[in-house]
Amino acid sequence: MAQNETATNGHTDGYTVSKSENEWREELSPEQYAVLREAGTERPWTGELLDESRAGLYTCAACGAELFKSGTKFDSGCGWPSFYESVRPEAVQLIEDTSLGMVRTEVRCASCGSHLGHVFPDGFGTPTGDRYCMNSLSLNFTPES
Q1: What's the rounded Cα separation, in Å, for the pair 6 and 96?
Q2: pLDDT, averaged across the chain
Q3: Which of 5, 135, 45 is nearest to 83 (CA)?
């Protein structure tokens, strides 16, 4: 597990980007708020970034922190954008998630605590063996110029 394992009221304190839930509601679309701040999940195969194949950088849709490079994105067939590693280990926060009656590892932005998705140890054929299964709504993409 990464830093700040213990969550309180859904999010931990001490993030470099800290805003009230009202501020987040004003800045994010209702769909983004549901995913990023309430740990929701977008429907599979619906995300705008699923088929994005250009070179570039994926950042947190809430705070703009750098999260993933396009070179680590792969087609996992799961219906969500998948990456085999984050841009830096400290860019994301990994938290045990026991919701839905199973044990999973939630991935949050380490800068603002927003929910990004989950990481699974089934990224077969990737250099790390990991599959960071991310919601498109939680990411912004900037193509290389």
Answers
A1: 9
A2: 91
A3: 135
Classify residue 31: in a domain, yes or no. no
Q: Determine whether the annotation assigns residue 78 to a binding site.
A: no
Contact 91, 110 (CB under 8 A): yes
Q: Are 113 and 138 in contact (CB under 8 A)?
A: no
pTM here? 0.89
Active site residue 133: yes
Annotated binding residue 63: yes
Could you tell me which residues come within 8 angstroms of residue 10 by beta carbon, excluding any fewer than 6 positions away?
37, 38, 39
Residue 77: which CATH number? 2.170.150.20
Instruction: Answer whether residue 44 is part of any domain.
Output: no
The total number of structural domains that make up the chain: 1
